[in-house]
């Protein structure tokens, strides 16, 4: 009898086996990746939600600190101008004044015409708007939506309260200390 017997000790040649992954292994890895993505995605989306508000509030706080420092350094009143899309610092041309006598300067449209050493501007992130603005000093009548905050050579500033709002309705409330000029903020749900 010429039958082939099956011998378990004989293995198929290595040339008949191909290295790689089976379909089940690939599908299993994809399912695990999808489950982990589904769990972590909401956390990432929530952390991104208030990013533009954080950027706007930090920009205003840093710009206010710069305006105060420049007012002290140059001995001139510097005015922080807030509009719908930007924050500007304008140095008044007059020498040091007392806080009661300070006036808000006119807002010039031609930014390039000013001395670059006496002005600074920062754009607000898209979608961020000024929802509320209050100050203890009387505002000069001017354009609607334009607000002025004065920083004086003695280190003081106009006290203000400002609320930034994003399109989703998240808000950040900002306050200034008129003695130190420091701006603090807190997020409101």
Question: Counting H and I runs of at least 4 residues, what is the number of helices?
Answer: 2
Name of the CATH class of one domain: Alpha Beta
Strand content: 15-25%
The amount of helix comes to 25-40%
CATH topology title of one domain: minor pseudopilin epsh fold
Task: List how many beta strands DSSP finds.
Answer: 8
Task: Give start-end ranges of low-pLDDT stretches.
Answer: 93-114
CATH architecture assignment name of one domain: 3-Layer(bab) Sandwich
The Rg value, from CA coordinates, equals 31 Å
Structural class: alpha+beta
The end-to-end distance, rounded to whole angstroms, is: 88 Å
Major sheet attributes: 4 strands, antiparallel
Features:
single chain, 189 residues, alpha+beta, minor pseudopilin epsh fold, 4-stranded antiparallel beta sheet, 2 helices, elongated
Give a structural overview.
The chain contains 2 helices and 8 strands, in the order H-H-E-E-E-E-E-E-E-E. Helix content is 27%, strand content 24%. The protein has a domain at 57-188: 3-Layer(bab) Sandwich (minor pseudopilin epsh fold). A 4-stranded antiparallel beta sheet has the order 3-2-1-5, with helices on one face. The chain has a 4-stranded antiparallel beta sheet with strand order 4-6-7-8, covered by helices on one side. Residues 93-114 have low confidence and may be disordered.
What's this entry about, in short?
The chain has two helices and eight strands.
């Amino acid at each position: 009898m010429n039958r082939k017997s099956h011998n378990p000790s004989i293995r198929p040649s290595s040339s008949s086996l191909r290295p790689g992954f089976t379909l089940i292994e690939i599908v299993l890895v994809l399912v695990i990746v999808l489950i982990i993505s589904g769990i972590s995605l909401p956390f990432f989306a929530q952390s991104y939600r208030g990013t533009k508000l954080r950027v706007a509030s930090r920009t205003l706080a840093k710009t206010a600190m710069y305006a105060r420092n420049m007012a002290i350094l140059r001995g001139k009143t510097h005015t922080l101008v807030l509009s719908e899309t930007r924050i500007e610092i304008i140095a008044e041309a007059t020498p040091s004044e007392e806080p009661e006598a300070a006036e808000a300067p006119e807002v010039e449209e031609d930014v390039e015409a000013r001395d670059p050493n006496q002005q600074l501007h920062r754009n607000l992130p898209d979608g961020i708007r000024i929802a509320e603005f209050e100050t203890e000093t009387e505002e000069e009548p001017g354009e609607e939506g334009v607000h002025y905050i004065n920083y004086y050579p003695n280190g003081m500033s106009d006290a203000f309260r400002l609320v930034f709002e994003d399109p989703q309705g998240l808000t950040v409330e900002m306050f200034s200390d008129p003695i130190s000029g420091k701006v603090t903020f807190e997020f409101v749900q």
